[in-house]
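Reading a protein record of the kind used here takes only a little practice. Think of the row as the fold of the chain written in a discrete alphabet. A record is reproduced here so that you can trace the correspondence yourselves:
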Amino acid sequence: MTDGSLPIEAQLMAAELALGFLDGAQELSALQRQLEDKAFAGEVKRWQRLADGWLESLPTEPLDEKIWARIDASLGGTVADAEPEVSAETVTWRRRALFAAAASVVLALALGLSLGQRQNTGNGEFAETAFKDNHVAQITSATGTPLLTALYRDREGILELRVEELAKGQKALELWVIDAKGKPHSLGLLIGTDRISLSPSPGLRRLLVDEATMAITLEPQDNQNHDAPSGDIIGSAKLKAI
């Protein structure tokens, strides 16, 4: 359980520090707080214990090279005919990559807290709501940098977004969901703030299901959803049930 005495942003900072997602001035600030704030230090330790558990659960033996070849192909690479020998360094790197993927999803869950995943109980206290029937997706750039994290609360029909970097100038990011036939449907332009809450129409809600593909493009900033993308897809990800 999280430490309820810590502000939401402090809980997220503790998670990011423990999982290795901070650097530079942010990391120094978090380390300083870890020394001075007992509750914050305890939260960092809690996340570190979780991370240790994930690493222990990951495979130590090399996975079948055919599996990695299929993953590479799905990411736009090619399937090599030869099966190269797998070094210990490669196995270690892949285990770290799997860990990073798991950590990213968990931070997406933690994002739900900072996006209003707490309800007022009427006496000034807040209670965390269950994540049941919710979905998350994190769209990253070609270099792996997070661009957008989405939390879809199925029961309420609310799509909560955190945009890492808003577009500048005459263009704006537009979020799409792709239906089973490959047709994109606009969920809206992402303008003005890095924290956005959307209420999709019933028709769009039917598309926001497990494994649905979400994508972002750069579009004209004309304050209206578009019928189809005019620009290239910057990034995409699948909704995952949590």
About this structure: The helical segments are 8-18, 24-36, 38-57, 65-74, 88-114, 202-205. The radius of gyration is 20 Å.
